[in-house]
Amino acid sequence: MRVHVIGGGVIGMMTARALALAGVEVVLLERTHLAAEASWAGGGIMSPLYPWRHPSAVDVMARQSQALYPQLVQALLASTGIDPEWQPGGMFMFAVDDVAAAQDWARRVDVELQLLSAEELQQRLPAGPHAAAALFMPGLAHVRNPRLLAALAADLRRLAVVIEEGSEVVDFQQSQGRVQALLLADGRRLSVETVVACAGAWTGRLLARAQQNIAIHPVHGEMLCYAPGTAPAPASILMHDAHYLIPRRDGHLLIGSTVALRDFDKSTTTAARQQLMQIAGRLWPALAGQSPTWHWAGLRPGSAQGIPVVAESPVRGLWVHAGHFRNGLILAPASTRLLVEQLLAQTCSLPPQPYAWPDPASSPSS
Questions:
Q1: Taking the model in full, what pTM does it have?
Q2: How far is the C-alpha of 127 from the C-alpha of 141, rounded, in Å?
Q3: Which of 181, 188, 234, 249 could lock onto 173 through a cystine, CB 3.0 to 4.6 A?
């Protein structure tokens, strides 16, 4: 069996890796180069922000992925020598206005969640912001996504996956309702048996070339990074109003992120830089007045309620694995497992229905 995977982000690379480990011959097509888009641009928090506010389909998939990640990063380190820096440390959440709902969720899914008073918060995070209370999720980790992506790329080469960077798919050829070939921008025609579209924010535009409409669209987001030594780093992630500070192992501090609809424009803005610098100073007062070293933007694959599509399209042989919105990194292991189980006709570890090809009436969510 041969499978062509379109897209070289975390979803595409994990899909290609899982298929190769299952004995499938895999060709990975990437229009630019591996790990160039949202997977690289994100923060790597190993949980949806405020997980109790998400649909069950996202929450369940995220929790399965959380259980899979430690073994995955250990396997990648062993096989490639690249450490993805999976780092536990927990997360403080300030100014949460639905504490009861959060506590109910934590009890229901058996996740430790602590409600800290101002005094307890001061003891645990003396250099942090002043707050009347905070929630703390001690079991939460983060991963250094550029290193995770580098490890995945190295492992794909070890597994003899054919990687074709600079190979943009511009059209599909079909016969009797089944995909037959891919047409590339360089003029090549590739005969195919099975295709998995993992094109992130570009998936909707890509599938339109196969006459299939799917509500996956780009959602612009900007982030900042402060160089090591700018300020002492906290041991945990800090979050307020869906903005966060992530401490890397080497002292880098990431601040994210904005949300905007700007089509496929990836440029950064002065307004977002100023907004994120203000957020940095509120979350970690030692950063007030400091200048970030890096500022970048990425495009998330927005979808209806943030639930990814992990299913075969109406065109037989053309599968879709996309639409993870802000949660591609955390959902990737469980989402990939579900895709491969369905494609290889295996027993599914999650019910496939919530991730099925969407009803035409569904609408995108930002």
A1: 0.96
A2: 21
A3: 181
Q: What pairing do the DSSP bridges indicate for beta strands 309-312 and 2-6?
A: unpaired
- pLDDT one-digit tens code per residue, 20-57: 999 999 999 999 999 999 999 999 999 999 999 999 99
Mean pLDDT estimate for the chain: 96
Specify the pLDDT at position 359.
73
Using a 10 angstrom Cβ sphere, with 0-12 exposed, 13-18 middle and 19 or more buried, the burial of residue 41 is buried
Torsion 344-349-354-355 (CA) sign: negative
State the pLDDT at residue 366: 36
> What number is the average pLDDT over the span 65-83?
98
190 HSE (CA, 13 A, CB side): 24
Beta bridge partners of 245: 238, 255
Statement: residue 122 has pLDDT above 80: yes
Is residue 179 over pLDDT 90? yes
Judge whether residue 363 has pLDDT over 50. no
The amino acid that residue 184 corresponds to is L
